[in-house]
Amino acid sequence: MSTEQTEVFEQRLDAAMQKLQECQKEKQLKSCSKCEQYIGCEIRRAYVQTVYDSMSKGETGGFEF
After folding, report:
1. pTM of this structure
2. What would the mean pLDDT of 48-54 be, rounded to a whole number?
3. Cβ count within 10 A of residue 15
4. With contact defined as beta carbons under 8 Å apart, do 35 and 29 qualify?
5. Domain residue ranges in the chain
6. Alpha-carbon distances of 33 from 22, 28, 47, 49, rounded to whole Å
7. How many beta carbons lie within 10 A of that of residue 55, not counting itself?
8. Are 18 and 42 in contact (CB under 8 A)?
9. At 46, is the secondary structure helix, strand, or coil?
10. What is the pLDDT of residue 64?
11. At what angle do helices 42-56 and 3-26 cross, to 10 degrees?
12. How many helices (H) and strands (E) does the chain have?
């Protein structure tokens, strides 16, 4: 995988993390698990998916740590 492709995954991860942290800050929470919208939260779901995509670099199946 090229460095350029890796950077795309990292940029997406950074953006998703920033959005999640902004939501937590807005709700004055340190963790999503304390939020009443924890189950079904689109921001959290998108973040988790972005983390998975970043770890697997877009490949289906397993990923490397």
Report:
1. 0.79
2. 90
3. 13
4. yes
5. 3-56
6. 15, 12, 14, 17
7. 14
8. no
9. helix
10. 52
11. 160
12. 2, 0
